[in-house]
Amino acid sequence: MTGSPDNQNPASLFNAPIEQVASLMVKIIRELKPDVVITHDAGGGYGHPDHIATHNAVVKAFHAANDPAQFPQAGPPFQPAKLYFGVRPAGIMKIAVRLMPLLGQNPANSPQ
Fold it and tell me: Is the pLDDT of residue 51 over 50?
C-alpha cells in the first residue's frame, strides 16, 4: 500500500517506467486482438499502488495500440473496441478492506 516499504522493491510494478509497461501491454493487445480491455479504475480499486500503475499503463497502451508510430516493435497496429474499468461501490471496498485482517489478509502486508 502507499508508504509501504514493499513499494521500494525494484520489481514492484509501482517502480516500473510507464513506457516500459505500456510497451509490453501494447504487444499483448496487438497479438491477442481483444475486442475489450479491462483494467482497474484510476484509484486502483482500493488505492493499491501497483493497481494504479496498471491502470495508467493499460490506458496508455489502449490508446497507443492503433498508432503505428508508437511502439512499432510491438507488432502491427490494432485497436480494441472498448476499454472498461472494474469499479465497485466505495462503501463495499471500505468494508472489504476492514475485513481483510479478520480473514488473515492484511492489505498492508500483501505482496506488491
Answer: yes
